[in-house]
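Subject: for your reference before the review

Hello V.,

The reviewers asked for a structural picture of the protein, and I figured it would be easier to keep everything in one thread rather than splitting it across files. Below is the amino acid sequence we used in the manuscript, unchanged from the supplementary table.
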Amino acid sequence: MTTDSEAHPLFAEALTTLGLDGLRAEIRRFPDATRTAAEAAAAIGCELSQICKSLIFAADGVPVLVLMDGASRVDVERVRQELGAGKVTRAKADVVRETTGYAIGGVPPFGHRTRTRVLADRSLLDHDVVWAAAGTPYTVFPMEPKTLIAHAGGTLVDVREQSQ
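And here is what came back from the structure prediction:
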C-alpha cells in the first residue's frame, strides 16, 4: 500500500471544487484491486462495516446513488418506497460509467460526472471514519461519515436489508 496523490482525474477535480485538496494525501493506493467491500476492508485492515459502498440503481430508469456500509445489503424495496418509484433495479455497468464517470468497484460517493439523487443509509453513522473508493478499484480514502454524506448531497434513510 502506498499513499498516492494521483487520484482519478475526475475525483481529483471534485476534491478541488469541494475545497478538499488536503484529502489527496489521505488517498491510499493498493497493488491489488479493492473492488469489493471485503477486499477493501482486508487491504485497509478495518471492519467490513467501515467501508462505504457507492451503488448505482435505476429508479424508473433514473440513476440514483445509494451509499451503504460494506457489511450490509441494500433492500431494493425500501429504496423503491423511499423514492416513490414504480421499479428499482441495479444499474448496468455502462449506465454506472455513463452516470458517474467511474467503473463499478471504483465509484466514489461524490465527484460524479452527472448529478444524481443520493440516499445514504444510517448505518454509516455507526463509525467515526468510513472508507470509500477514490475513483478507481485500487484507491480508497477515509472520511467522517456525516462529512462524506454532506459532500455527496445525501439524504439519510434506512434502506438496508434487515436480518431475519
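For the response letter, the relevant points are probably these. Residues 119 and 155 are 5 Å apart (CA to CA). Strands lie at 2-3, 28-29, 51-59, 62-69, 88-90, 117-121, 130-133, 139-143, 155-157.

Happy to draft the paragraph if you're swamped.

O.
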